[in-house]
Every structure is written in structure tokens, then in C-alpha cells.
Amino acid sequence: MQLQPKQVNTNKQRLECVICHYHLDANDKSAFFTFPCNVRAFIGEKFKVWRCPHCKTIHCLDTVDLDHYYAKYPLSQAKLTQGYRSLCSNVYRQLTKHGFSKTHSLLDYGCGGNGLFVQYFRERGFTNSYGYDPYASEDSFGNPAVLGHGQFDYILLHEVIEHVEDPNALLSQLNSLLSSKGYILITTPNAANIDLNRPDLPDHYNPVHVPYHLHIYTHEILEFLGTSQRWELVDFYERRYGDTRRFGFNVRAWNAYVSLFDGSLDVLVEPLQIVKALTSYKFLFYAIFGYWLSLHCGMAIMFRKGI
User: Fold this and answer.
1) With contact defined as beta carbons under 8 Å apart, do 185 and 94 qualify?
2) Long-range contacts, stretch 148-152, CB < 8 angstroms, 24+ apart
3) Residue pair 209/38 in contact by the 8 Å Cβ criterion
4) CA 287/CA 253 separation, integer angstroms
5) Do the strands 231-237 and 152-158 form a parallel or antiparallel pair, or are they unpaired?
């Protein structure tokens, strides 16, 4: 069983909102905003996005061959360093707050080719933790056979829902893999706090993340999508898991750091250039105060499945 097959190039534009079905006039040039790709292999490429005037969902207008773009996706090369372990611990606390224990099974759907969360949980003794990603190779986390382990007590959908064309289809399929009274934690950008007028700033072009992010939702829409599956809302977090009080470990500090180089996400998986970072007043400012100056461009929401 393979969930949400890879997206293919349809040579069409996304002019209809997947949530409220508002149809945008392609000739209304004022509705479009142009954003740069933030992956080094494709820097220089730009794509248009638009915000639905009714439900405020952000859509990437342009369709592309995503196999081509994921083939050089930098975050799939990230390693489970101590820094990443610190960030994974925040997701761990969100799950254990709602009962996640070593006796439970967990599926990290869309875990990338490296499965950092799966590695982290297994290190901590959560041996029933599994990962699957349709863009990963079958010898890593791309083997759909893992989905045959049965229903999972917990599902982690970390920064994934914005990458798929049909969110309802994805959540419906995940619902079939979620055990009765199981929990699903969804993390994703928050469209309400993204300024489409600032494509020059990594604080905004990183969460827009063209052409990988196809649809970006608000808190209200994300809650609507979950409750449409008859899931009960049990928790909401207005920050990304990496937005912490720890020095340098917040989203605004990361964005200031990548700006010291070429502005790409690749910078975040490369060796830290601490000297250059510590000589930047902007980085130091956000390393200290970034948590309290957060733009809240990311969010997480926890649902519980009924019987």
C-alpha cells in the first residue's frame, strides 16, 4: 500500500483552491506573488503563489515535475546531530504529553530519506517506530511494506501536508492507518502569518518554499481538515518544533544565519560556520531574542481519533 503517490507534472496551473474551491482568474496579475526557490540546486528559479481571498490558503500556481526537485533536496541529507536531537526532543515531549510510550507504535509519514525522528525515537527505546516517504528509495524509507505493520497508535505528519495536492485524500488514508483512539500530530507552516509581499526575506520565503509547498493552510483550515475526518482536536502549538528559547535555536536565528551565505536551506545541513555567525550582529540579536520576536510562521496540531 502506497499513500499519496508521487506528484507528476500535469502542465496545469493551480487556479482553484483545494479547500473552498474558489477559482482565480488567471488574468488577474495583481493576485500573484513571485518567490524564489530556496534550494541551492535551483536558486535563480522563481515561482508564483497566490492567497485564496475566502479561506486564506496559499497556493503555488506553478506545477512542476517534483521528482526532479526532490532529487536534490538538501534536508534529506541532514544527520542526527546533537542539535537535531535537541529539536527532536520537542516533538517527543508533544507526543509523550498525550501518552506516547515504548509500548506504542508510531509511523512518521513523509520522514524523508534519513528518517531523523525515527532514528531519534529508536535511540530512546521506542522500537516500534517506523518511517515511510514516497520520495525515498526503497532501501531506506521508501518501502511501502512498512505500512503493512497494521494500525499505528501514533502518526507523525511533520511538514508534509503542505507538500501534497489533496490534503483530504492524504488524511483519509492516514485515518485508515490510525488505531482507534490513536493520535496524529501534524506540523506545517501557518499561512496566516506569512507575508507574501516579502519574498526577499527568508522569514517568509522559507515557509513558502516553492515549488515544494503546494498548499499552505491557516490554523482554522488545518483544524477543519482534521475534524472533517471526525478527529477530536486535543492540542495546538503556535510555533514550529525548532522555535525554542535556547541560544541560536529559533527560526529567526536560522533565517538570519542562512542570509549570511546564499540564503538556501542547504546551509542548515552543512557544517556550522560559528565564527562567521558570531561576527554577525543580526544573527546574534536573533540568536538571543528570536524566540520572543517569532513571526509564528509554523504551527502544530494534535488530533485524536474516535472509536
Assistant:
1) yes
2) 148/1, 149/105, 149/107, 150/105, 151/177, 151/178, 151/179, 151/180, 151/182, 152/105, 152/106, 152/107, 152/177, 152/178, 152/179, 152/182
3) yes
4) 5
5) unpaired
Interacting residues of 5 by C-beta distance below 8 A, sequence separation 6+ = 134
Q: Residue 186 in 3-state DSSP?
A: strand
> What letter would DSSP give residue 221?
H
Count of positions (residues) in the chain: 307
pLDDT tens profile 118-153: 999 999 999 999 999 998 888 889 999 999 888 999
> What cell does 136 get?
525515498
The answer to whether the beta carbons of residues 301 and 237 sit under 8 Å apart is: yes
Beta-sheet pairing, 106-109 with 231-237: unpaired
Helix crossing, 82-96 with 116-123: angle to 10°?
80
Q: What is the pLDDT of residues 206-241, one digit of tens each?
A: 999 999 999 999 999 999 999 999 999 999 999 999
Burial of 214 (0-12, 13-18, 19+ CB in 10 A): buried
pTM for the whole structure: 0.94
pLDDT band, residue 9 (cuts 50/70/90): very low
Q: What H or E segment, with its residue span, contains residue 50? A: strand 46-51
Each residue's pLDDT tens digit, 27-49: 999 999 999 999 999 999 999 99
Residue at 9: amino acid letter: N
